[in-house]
Amino acid sequence: MLVAERRGRIAQAAMHVALERLSILPIEALDQFEDDPIFDLARHHKLSFYDAAYLELAKARRIPLATFDNALIRAAKSDNVPLVGN
Fold first, then answer.
1. What's the pLDDT tens digit per position in 22-77?
2. Rounded to two decimals, what is the model's pTM?
3. N or C: where does the chain have the smaller number of CB atoms within 10 Å of the terminal CB?
């Protein structure tokens, strides 16, 4: 969100509201993951490892992906991963 704020995609006040909303979600941290599928997605869609990790997690868990990143949105649509709000 900080990058989105820096690029003028989201206002600082809106970012704080979004962070407050995120803080009430039941977010779970994973201890381990397989990195080969993430590298494959990153290469195929020309994503960063970081973005490909989010895509892989959404695919594996069959959950919608939340992002404002256009490349990640295209990759999710290409891989039939639902997006939050769509």
1. 889 888 777 777 889 999 999 999 999 999 999 999 999 999 999 999 999 999 99
2. 0.66
3. C
Of 36, 31, 69, the C-alpha closest to 53 is 36
Domain count, the chain: 2
Q: Which residues contact 79 (CB under 8 A, 6 or more apart)?
A: 41, 55, 59
**Which residue segment(s) compose the domain that 2 sits in?**
1-27
